[in-house]
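SAMPLE LOG
Freezer: B-3
Tube label: C17
Construct: single chain, 163 aa
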Amino acid sequence: MGAALALRTLYGAGMRLVHHVQTAASPAQVWAMLGTPSRWPEFDVFLAKVRGPERPAAVGQHLVGISRWTALGIPLDVLEVEPEKRLVMRVRTAPGITEELTFVLTPTTRAGTSISVSVVVDGLFAGIAAPMLWLTNGLNARVLAARTHGVARHARRTAKTVA
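STRUCTURE (predicted):
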């Protein structure tokens, strides 16, 4: 699993940070976790849980992520959903820091998935927060890839046992 950094100013509006990771899981297996807000704490190092309707991610959803280390509620707005392909959300990380997270799932030739996580950081403190957010979102991408890789491996073993 590798990560690439693209750090640039977008028309003065923020900084774009990109990570690319690979998993042996199919896009459907990755989406089972990524497309279910209540499962986001399984790969997001900041979240203990997500408050909101118990349903798949949907455009217009307004959720609240609860921080692992404090009782802070983090507003999460779902902006775009294309099941098994793309999820875009706005995260108001802290006063003066807003992230727009874009997850893009691309099938690979070896029956796995390439996961691209793009983060646009904006706000008064974007420049200060960008390095930390780049690191944590990179970690989140790697955890998502590792967890879904484990799911795919378990599914293959189960299929072999049944066959």
